[in-house]
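SAMPLE LOG
Freezer: B-3
Tube label: C17
Construct: single chain, 176 aa
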Amino acid sequence: MTIPFPDPQLAGQPPLSLMRSSVMLGEEAHDSVRVQLTPVSTIEYEVVPVDVEGRTGLLYYSERALEGAIAPDEEPVSRVWLAMAAMTFLESGDVLSVGSVRSPRPRPNSVRPDDETLLRVIRRATADGVSVRGFFAQRWAVSLRTADDWIKYARALPGANLPPARRGRPRKASEA
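STRUCTURE (predicted):
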């Protein structure tokens, strides 16, 4: 997963250092993440991200100067961004890339039947006078839109020889 940089000026900078750690809060140990923007920052952040009503927040936040004191002109990184980066890092199993562009979410595995089955089912439903899209939607538990996409795909297959798509509104049951 890719998350945007906290500051557009950092977009071309080299790496972000993220390290899994642990912090004691009271008598409980919590997974934490140590974050350092290298080499532009002299601050190391340690955060414990939490999910609060569907939004990422911070249970714990600390800043530590890597050498000496924190420079007075150095702006701290946004806590919202730190929370997102840390939560993503912990959830992704230590695989995280940082950049200015978000990557798309992975697509779920398709439940579409193979081409042979697709064509056979469409021919059978057409011969029986059954709604093909309704049959797909019910049998494979997909939306009508997905069923329409499958039918369109099947019509485009070489040698499909399926009846052409009907244009316009569906016929009423009394006209069929």
